[in-house]
């Protein structure tokens, strides 16, 4: 259960990501700076699975993962999908990440949507347990969303709220995106981008901004009363 939107303007680009999780899941470890295969990246960590749901690396690649609840497939002995996403953070070009992604044996993974974004490419992989498909560029529409509860209703509601609240031509476009991710409808709490259900809720919000010389990762946990805690800002220089 998550909501993802992305933006791009001259000289910078980025994403907003609401992570929705079961109330039984452990609190995440806030973003830190990591290194793997010679590549430095920022990501939070899920202590239950050991992986992540969002990263940004020094090369300017952003990766995000949403569970695919619209398909019945669940792997018998599942490997954490967050580990799959985290394994891609080492790649410094989209073609290298694509090659690695398409060589993975996905039989041990439950359904997912995996999003890769840079200044030159926007890609979405969809795994339904039998087939891996890929969409790119204009094939994708914002927001991307997932929900284990009434998926079609929830997705349609969030898309409509996005249409009503976000004007891509507005000078306040990025501000509007942030307001959309903060939106909660008391009448439909489970459908809202900032969601609450008895068994799950929005647990964190991430905003990643990539500029020529720096990556900024703003992260805030969300408490039981839907109150965001103080922003934790992590930065990563892109200079060699």
| Rounded average pLDDT | 93
Order of helices and strands: EEEEEEHHEEEEHHEEE
- In the CATH hierarchy, the architecture is 4-Layer Sandwich
Q: Specify the biggest β-sheet.
A: 7 strands, antiparallel
Give the strand content. 35-45%
**Overall number of structural domains:** 1
Number of strands: 13
Relevant CATH superfamily: Penicillin V Acylase, Chain A
Give, in spatial order, the strands making up the sheet with the most strands: 3-4-5-6-7-8-9
Class by SSE composition: alpha+beta
CATH fold type: Penicillin V Acylase, Chain A
The parts where pLDDT drops under 50 for at least 5 residues are none
State the separation between the terminal residues, measured CA to CA: 37 Å
Commentary on this structure:
Helix content is 17%, strand content 37%. By secondary structure, the protein is an alpha+beta fold. It has one domain (6-145, 198-237): Penicillin V Acylase, Chain A. The strands form two sheets. A seven-stranded antiparallel sheet has the order 3-4-5-6-7-8-9, with helices on one face. A six-stranded antiparallel sheet has the order 10-1-2-11-12-13, with helices on one face. The longest helix has 15 residues, at 151-165. The termini are far apart.
């Amino acid at each position: 259960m998550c909501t993802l939107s992305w933006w791009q303007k001259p000289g910078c680009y980025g994403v907003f990501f609401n992570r929705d999780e079961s109330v039984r899941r452990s609190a995440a470890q806030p973003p830190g700076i990591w290194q793997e295969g010679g590549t430095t990246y920022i990501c939070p960590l899920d202590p239950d699975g050991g992986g992540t749901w969002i990263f940004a690396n020094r090369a300017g690649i952003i990766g995000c993962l949403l569970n695919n609840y619209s398909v019945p497939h669940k792997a018998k002995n599942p490997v954490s999908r967050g580990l799959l996403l985290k394994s891609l953070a080492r790649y410094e070009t989209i073609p290298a990440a694509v090659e690695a992604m398409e060589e993975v044996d996905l039989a041990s993974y439950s359904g997912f949507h995996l999003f890769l974004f840079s200044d030159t490419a926007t890609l979405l992989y969809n795994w339904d347990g039998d087939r891996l498909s890929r969409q790119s560029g204009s094939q994708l529409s914002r927001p991307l969303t997932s929900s284990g509860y009434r998926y079609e209703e929830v997705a349609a509601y969030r898309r409509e709220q996005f249409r009503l609240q976000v004007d891509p031509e507005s000078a306040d476009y990025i501000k509007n995106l942030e307001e959309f991710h903060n939106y909660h409808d008391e009448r439909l709490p489970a459908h809202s981008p900032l969601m609450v259900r008895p068994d799950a809720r929005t647990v964190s919000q991430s905003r990643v901004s990539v500029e020529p010389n720096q990556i900024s990762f703003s992260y805030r946990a969300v408490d039981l009363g839907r109150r965001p805690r103080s922003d934790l800002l992590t930065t990563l220089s892109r200079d060699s």
